[in-house]
Write the structure tokens for this entry.
Amino acid sequence: MAKKTKIQIQNLHKSFEGKHVLKGINLEIKEKESLVVIGGSGAGKSVLIKNITTLMDPDSGSIKIDDKEITSLKEEDKNKLMDKFGFLFQGGALFDSLTIWENVAFRLIHKQNIPRTKAKKIAIEKLKIVGLEKKVADLYPCELSGGMQKRAALARAIAADPEIIFFDEPTTGLDPIMADVINDLIIKCSKTVGATTFTITHDIASARKIADRVALLYKGEIIWCDDVKKLDKSGNKFVEEFIAPTIHTKQ
């Protein structure tokens, strides 16, 4: 049975002060699929993810999630839509003044009104999934290494068992070994909660590891999108140029 479409984007446009950033984006992501959008700085990746998550309104075009148009939602309905989402932000974006478990359980406590005792138990379970021990739960972000902070942020992203997880440059700032660990955890966590995943990155090694399909965003347009296994035989000169530095390291 064919998987149903989870996210569908059609002819999406977005401009800022006359600068055309998104120029008619078309993308389709199936349920439980991992789509990775690659592209250089300024290609429009962050603007695209902000439009899909309703943090930004497009100028024109359509974005449907579960066949429901989301570009014209009222604020109340946007908040309900957010319940489907999990986020791993670039840099982790943990709250410095909260303990690790409070960071992980933030949404559970403040959005879902789950009692703190139960929320802490759930947080510890999610921390275990990403390889962090129970004792880490009561520490503060400043007491963790960068890699551990990223793991904690990943635990927060899956805390509410979201249907869709958005990853914004998940390996930025990490050494190659820790980046590979995070890539493995992204795959593990996504499968654990059965989520559809949408990732933006310039890290080709990460894209190769976590993607089912890869799309190249170039100057505001998706100029290639296909199975990750076809990345090295794309026949597209811009894809070849983008991945050229990493071709010799693949295997």
Remarks:
- The first helix runs from residue 45 to 52.
- Residues 16 and 59 are 10 Å apart (CA to CA).
- Confidence is low (pLDDT under 50) at residues 247-251.
- The two ends are 31 Å apart (CA to CA).
